[in-house]
Specification:
Distance between the termini: 12 Å
Structural class: alpha+beta
CATH architecture: 3-Layer(aba) Sandwich
CATH class: Alpha Beta
Oligomer: single chain
InterPro entries: DUF1877, YfbM-like_sf
Protein name: DUF1877 family protein
Order of helices and strands: EHHEHEEEHEHHHE
Pfam family, one: DUF1877
Strand content: 5-15%
Number of strands: 7
Shape: elongated
């Protein structure tokens, strides 16, 4: 089974309901991933706030998430990183943007997500990341990727021997991530991040 990352726009009121009742997260995720409104019906009397979320799409990053995280943070870590945005990294004087391995945990993460990672970002955090992503240039992306070609760090699901194919594959998902963050920032939504 592959490790894939999903981002889901969600309202603060739904996040608050999930924080108080973490078991709701599986139902909410099922609703968004499978458009399964029936899963929510039994809960609407107790949690009417769940009915607010009827037009939110999930962004699926497939297996590109670790390569994108490396490109943005210059780190191969697969754990939660302790920052959102650093204006200049020590290694290459480019910004470090933590758009994937970030956020505050919800409940006992291992109980509610496939690989034990379930986090959320508040709207101001989404705006901070979105603004930084909008400034991260194609030249920055290429420079970090080219360093990866030279050093061949251990990145999940990346074949450095087929670097150009990997770059094109990652770039498509990267652009989707930038657009998704921008949309969430414009809508003043929270983000749920899980894998």
């Amino acid at each position: 089974m592959s490790i894939t990352v999903q981002l889901q726009q969600i309202s603060l009121s739904v996040i608050e309901a999930i924080k108080e009742n973490p078991q709701l997260v599986k139902t909410v995720i099922s609703y968004y991933e499978e458009n399964n409104f029936e899963a929510l019906l039994p809960l609407l009397d107790t949690f009417p706030v769940l009915s607010e979320q009827n037009d939110t799409l999930v962004l699926e990053l497939d297996k590109s998430w670790h390569l994108i995280s490396y490109i943005l943070t210059n780190s191969t870590e697969m754990e939660n990183l302790p920052f959102l945005v650093n204006e200049v990294s020590d290694e290459d004087n480019m910004p470090s943007i933590n758009a994937i391995l970030c956020g505050a945990p919800i409940g006992k993460e291992s109980e509610y997500s496939s690989y034990g990672y379930l986090r959320y970002l508040l709207p101001e955090e989404v705006r901070t990341i979105s603004a930084a992503l909008s400034k991260f240039s194609n030249a920055d992306i290429r420079a970090r990727f080219d360093r990866g070609i030279l050093t061949k760090p251990d990145i999940y699901a990346v074949d450095w021997e087929d670097a150009e194919t990997e770059f094109e594959w990652m770039l498509d998902y990267f652009e989707q991530l930038v657009n998704y963050y921008q949309d969430a920032a414009n809508k003043v939504n929270d983000l749920l991040i899980y894998f």
